[in-house]
Amino acid sequence: EMSAAGSKYIDTEVENAINGVKQMKTLMDKTSKDHQAILHTLEETKRRKEEAVQLAREKEQELAATQEVCNETMLALWEECKPCLKHTCMRFYSRTCHSGSGLVGRQLEEFLNRSSPFSIWVNGERIDSLLERDQQQERQFEDLEERFGLLEDGVDDIFQDSTHIYSRMYPFFQVPFGGFREAFRPPVQRVRLPPRSGRFSRELHPFFQHPHRGFHHLFQPLFEMTQRMLEEVQGGWEHPLGGFAPGKESRNFSDERMVCREIRRNSAGCLRMRDECEKCREILSVDCRQTDPAQSQLREQLEDALRLAERFTRRYDDLLRAFQAEMLNTTSLLDQLNRQFGWVSRLANLTQGTDGFLQVTTVLSKAPNLEDPSAPPDTQVTVQLFDSEPLSLTVPGDISWHDPRFMEIVAEQALQHYKQ
């Protein structure tokens, strides 16, 4: 009789938990629909960005083909510009950055030897920076997509286990829970990129076997990392040298790290220091329009294409940030629901006994309280809930064995132990 009363309480808690899991699935389905809209916007922004970069490269090639009319003047200036540019960049790097001067110096020398004055004349580092940022964005997007897929799969796993429990416990009861099975069907066809590797799957999938762990850990480290990168890049659009020039005394530590990292990754970043060298500035002033008027129009078209590509790159950064923020908001809500209701998914493989999930094995009166012999002694109850080991629980002596609250207290304590 006690086992039946306790199981009735547990059955109610299980049903409440299954309803909570349904809330998780409903939230995830809505998020998946929103996610499809975000993917569409990201794809459209990426397409327009790539078109602008492609146009810029075409205009760059057209300009390169016409530069021969000024080639002699430019080459002479370039030979005097290169040593000054290398010295300026390396002096700045050695004063600002902590390591790697030798390697950076060799990379820079190789870069300058294979480059032409045209790289300075058309701001060639802007295209290099755009292409590099495109690769970074692609990596961030793939990581976010893979983690989002794990989140969807995890919620689906918890939900599927809950449907199994519900159909086993309530095969005849459909009204208040109607549509539960239908809710498992995805609302939209999911678009998923092929995984770059199994790294995340191997590392994170065991999380879903432990529902009380937080969903947040799927995204928080990635969010913090990419947030820093996006802030650095965003600052780089407006402050090519991270907000300070080589001659300035006042420097910001985070800006310095950004510039050091950029120069190590891409020697073309040193071209941004061309204003420090007179001969490099003279290259910028070379005017070929008298011998080839089309060059002026080509340079203007190149600048327009670069500005457009940079604008769409910033837009893509903003969308990635919004994508991350939306996922963090969703994972926060899922986190709360999972901690409250996710435990029920562990019951999917259990077999319910004839007397229910809660079995009472012993009920004993404890020894009287020596400090207050007149007080009724507490009751010790040993139970087994689901697949747990036997638990010894204590009920206050002023609650009779026949009081309905008695088994509620026992069942509630047992469930709390099980959840923990």
TrEMBL record:
Topology relative to the membrane: Peripheral membrane protein
The Clusterin C-terminal domain covers 203-419
Q: Which GO terms describe its cellular component?
A: chromaffin granule; cytosol; endoplasmic reticulum; extracellular space; mitochondrial membrane; nucleus
Cite the Pfam families for this sequence. Answer: Clusterin (PF01093)
Q: Which GO terms describe its molecular function?
A: misfolded protein binding
Key words of the record? Chaperone, Coiled coil, Cytoplasm, Cytoplasmic vesicle, Disulfide bond, Endoplasmic reticulum, Glycoprotein, Membrane, Mitochondrion, Nucleus, Secreted, Signal, Ubl conjugation
Q: What is the top-level taxon of the source organism?
A: Eukaryota
Q: Which PROSITE patterns match?
A: CLUSTERIN_1 (PS00492), CLUSTERIN_2 (PS00493)
Q: Which InterPro entries match?
A: Clusterin, Clusterin-like, Clusterin_C, Clusterin_CS, Clusterin_N
- Similarity comment: Belongs to the clusterin family.
What name appears for this protein in its UniProt entry? Clusterin
